[in-house]
Amino acid sequence: MQPATLNLPLFPRLANATWGLSQRHWRLVVVAMLALLHVAAFRGVTDTWARGLLLAHFGLLLLWQPFLRAEQRVSTMQGLILGALAVTVMLALNWWLLTFWVVVLAGLVGGKVYQHHLRWQRRAYQMVLLYLLALLAVVILPEVAPRREIDADIRHYAEILLPLCFVPVMLLPAEPESTDAAQMIDFFYSVFLMLLLGVVILGSFTVMTLQRTGYLEALTRTVFITAGAVLLIGLLWGPRRGFAGLNMFFSRYLFSIGLPLEKWLQMLAELTQLEARPARFLTESIAALMRVPSVSGVAWRSAQEQAEIGVRTPYPVEFDNSALALTIYSRYRMSPALHWHLHLLGQLLGEFYLGKMREEELRQASYLQAVHETGARMTHDIKNLLQSLNVLVAAAARDEGRDSPELQALMRRQLPAMSQRLGETLEKLQRPREVDETYVAAQAWWEGLARQYRSEEVELAPLSPGSAARLPRSLFDSVADNLIRNALAKRAADAGVRVRVSLECGQRVALRVRDSGKPVPADLQVTLLKAPVRSGGKGMGIGLYQAARQAEGEGFSLALEVNREGEVCFSLIGPAG
């Protein structure tokens, strides 16, 4: 339910200009505000005009204050508070109330001193703070001290000289500042400064009462004692020479709430490594979150499920991202620190769960990619087998009606090899990542290649006898078929093209396929073996790309070694098995 609001801005006639005024000419507003306070303080709290001046001073403060924008609508509660302050100023003004007001004002100004990174702005606020402290010490505190001991001449000089602090405030160089930037104060520093001023004031009065000293002497002694105490605390807070100070104990106390959370974070990190399923990871993480002492219940909603465990309380902390909506119920009314901690837990759990969802998607995409790549590679293997089968069919058609011994020998050589390769291709297609590469002796593989292409006039260089090298059979079958078929396609277009194949075995194995046809075009050479290219029905397209990828996976490299007119050479080089 929205709070009731007054249907008026903070200042009706200045609603569109006051925020800009407070940004561009804030010094003029501050000086006018301090001038009204100065006149009212010297006229005294019993003076009727002083009360009216303080009311105007309060209005200028509303223009300067860093809490509400001037064009902001005022709620009913805020309006009642402002009205109560105005009535208090008009009816119940006294020196103690004025002292309290100047202390609060000094705290607000002091809280802005260290929020400004602009040097001259900071100097101006320091001059304003100096004026307020001087007004408090010389004019206001003597009126509430146990004994009034400030000489009238000192008061007269202060009335004339203190406004000189306004001069540097107005004359210091103005630095550009964004008109949209919100004003800020250091709340902790403001409260600390107000408490410190309270200690100095009450300490001075205590010294005056107990030791029967004068006002100035008591004030001076209290200021030095307080300064010494602050200096000692500062030294103990962060001592030199590597010793731990009070800040460690303070931080340990402040963050002691984080100990159960640290255990949960450790469990979350371990669960991230152990559990790959997103739904199971989320369930176990929330079950562990329920063991945090401040958590009473958790409700969550994801794409897979919607559930709730524990007990609901009036103190929820909600977090929502694209994958998870999470609500954590606290057992107790939450401080800002506890609220921040619980929200951080929800954010961490949401991000980890989102990461698990992405991992699952990546695994599925990786599997589909493996199936796609394997299918593309197997398609080319089947295409090569089909070409070999076409050769057998053509030979059988040529010898139709005759029982040719050469045809029978060709069938006996080719059909078992084709059947074996077709079986291996089908197995890889069914299990793309589970089939291990089989290694065969280089001599045996080379002899099989020679039998396969004996009838197609492919020149095979002799292999050194007794070679003990072993090579991955599937890789060499696929690469050799792709390279040789591409070379034979060139020969089909140009009958004079020679195709030569060689295999060198040593510490490294090198398979080279050469042809004497035209070189690979320059525009294709840039992307050949690195990406699919348009083959125009003549090969050297996706087949070589898939072969290059397969070679990389086995630790080999497929490259276009020579590319010139009359000599084109592809090489497959890698370690001997």
What characteristics describe this protein?
59% helix; 19 helices; disordered N terminus; 13 strands; 577 residues; elongated; five-stranded mixed sheet; four-stranded antiparallel sheet; alpha+beta
Draw up the topology in text.
Blueprint: E1 5-9, H1 18-24, H2 26-43, H3 48-64, E2 73-75, H4 76-91, H5 95-113, H6 119-144, H7 152-161, H8 166-171, H9 187-211, H10 215-237, H11 246-254, H12 258-274, H13 278-289, E3 295-302, E4 306-310, E5 316-320, E6 324-330, H14 336-398, H15 405-430, E7 439-441, H16 442-452, E8 459-460, E9 470-472, H17 473-493, E10 499-505, E11 508-515, H18 522-525, H19 542-553, E12 557-564, E13 567-575
Parallel strand pairs: 8-10
Antiparallel strand pairs: 1-2, 3-4, 3-6, 5-6, 7-9, 10-11, 11-13, 12-13
Helix pairs in contact: 2-3, 2-6, 3-4, 5-6, 5-9, 9-10, 12-13, 12-14, 13-14, 14-15, 14-17, 14-19, 17-19
Mean pLDDT across all residues, rounded?
76
Approximately how much helix is present in the residues? 55-70%
* Biggest beta-sheet profile: 5 strands, mixed
Oligomeric state, counting identical vs distinct chains: single chain
Strand content: 5-15%
What's the overall geometry? Answer: elongated
- Rg over CA atoms: 44 Å
Distance between the termini: 76 Å
Structural class by sheet pairing and helices: alpha+beta
Number of helices: 19
Poorly predicted regions: 1-24
Task: Please list the strands of the largest sheet in the order they lie side by side.
Answer: 8-10-11-13-12
Beta strand count: 13
